[in-house]
Structures are given as C-alpha cells and as structure tokens.
Amino acid sequence: MRNFDFSPLYRATVGFDRMADMMDRALAADVAQPTYPPYNIEKTAENAYRISVAVAGFGSDELAVELREGALIVAGKKAEEAEAKTYLHRGIATRAFERRFALADHVRVAGATHADGMLHIDLVREVPEALKPRRIEIAGPSTVEAKAVETVEG
Q: Is 90 exceeded by the pLDDT of residue 73?
C-alpha cells in the first residue's frame, strides 16, 4: 500500500481541510470495500447526476436516504417477517446495508424514487453566481485618464 504525506500542502493552503480529510479517508480505506448493494453513478446533464442503487427485495419504507456532513447516506434494513419462511434457495440478498457517497460543494439532492427494485437519487450541482466565471472589462488608457480628470474637476 502506498503512503502519501500531504503535510507540505497544509503549509501553503487555507480552507482545504475538507478535501484533505477526504483524500486521507480515501487513501486509508481498506482495499476490501463492500460491494453490496451494487450501484451506478451516471451524469445525466452538464450539472446533473443520478445514483442508482439495486435494492431488490426492499420496500420504500425499508430504505432511508439522508444527507449528513457533506455525505449522502443510503441505508436499508429489512423489516422483521411475521412468519418464518423455509427457502429452498435464497439468492436475493436482503441484509441490512449502508452506503456512503461524498458530495462535492454545491451539490444538492433533487429527489429520490424507488421503482422496479431500483432506488434512483437525482443530484444537481448549483454553482452560486459569485463562483461562476465572469468577464472583467479591461479599461484602456483613455478611459483611466477621463476618470482621473472627472475626479480632479469634481
């Protein structure tokens, strides 16, 4: 396993603590990540995304989607069955799970739907106006001189 030391970056950056913590968690995470339940992450538009989680066997009331501290947490817990069933073959996993997705700044959850054994979570990135690129007009020398004359005369 590789070890990376990010301490030199901390000396030259301010306000990137969250990103540094996320990098540390990603690099320190155990290689054997859980694979249940399977999921897809797709980009549906320039600023829109969809997470699809395969939750066969779970009802909408047995699933929870929560946004906490910049992370999207999808959890499922099967309700206790009233009567015990005898399975000859049990291939549909219905064990409890919790799956976390780290969200970037300005990404919000637009909604979630559950249909046909799939949980779809729609995300939208909304960049504030202050952070959007804007064009700055460059003033020529004649414009600067005209403003200077106006302030001296005024």
A: yes
Bridge pairing between strands 97-102 and 71-76: antiparallel
User: Please, what are the domains in the chain?
Assistant: 1-33 (no CATH), 38-153 (2.60.40.790)
Inform me whether the pLDDT recorded for 142 exceeds 80: no
- Phi-psi label, residue 116: left if phi above 0, alpha if psi -120 to 50, beta otherwise: left
Closest CA to 119 of 36, 72, 60, 32: 60
Q: Is the dihedral of CA 26, 29, 30, 35 positive or negative?
A: negative
Q: What is the pLDDT of residues 13-37, one digit of tens each?
A: 666 666 667 777 666 655 556 788 9
Complete edge-to-edge strand list for the sheet that includes strand 97-102: 63-68, 71-76, 97-102
